[in-house]
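One record is set out below.
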Amino acid sequence: MSAFWLAVMTAVIWGFVPLLEKAGLGRIEPLAGLFYRSIGVMIGLVILALFFLRPEEIRSVHLKSALLIMAGGFLASFAATILFYNALKIGEMSRVVPISGSYPLITFILGVLILGEAFTPLKLLGVIFAVLGIWLLKIG
């Protein structure tokens, strides 16, 4: 399967999940929501460990790589989720999700500035549309 279709399927799942989370946050506080979301992640980890991962795949990982990925997991799955759940609980899902989902714009900028990735006119147009979309959601 191509990277494009894998990304499309990811977007479909990530687009659907906030609906579940918004509904779930209706009766609980965001930190409790994060706790229960993490249980879902733990169930996924057990399935991964039992059926998909081989022990040598885990043992062969370089320490620096493991630490970088763990830092990313902590920031994305803990720190950012606390912020996201608080925003989702008090805000409109139709605004909160697209604005918080504008992280590819940040990633693009960091990719250009830190990794030296190409900055093309077409990419610039995409950045302009992304910023315009965020601004329209904020004022609308």
User: Anything to note?
Assistant: The two ends are 38 Å apart (CA to CA).
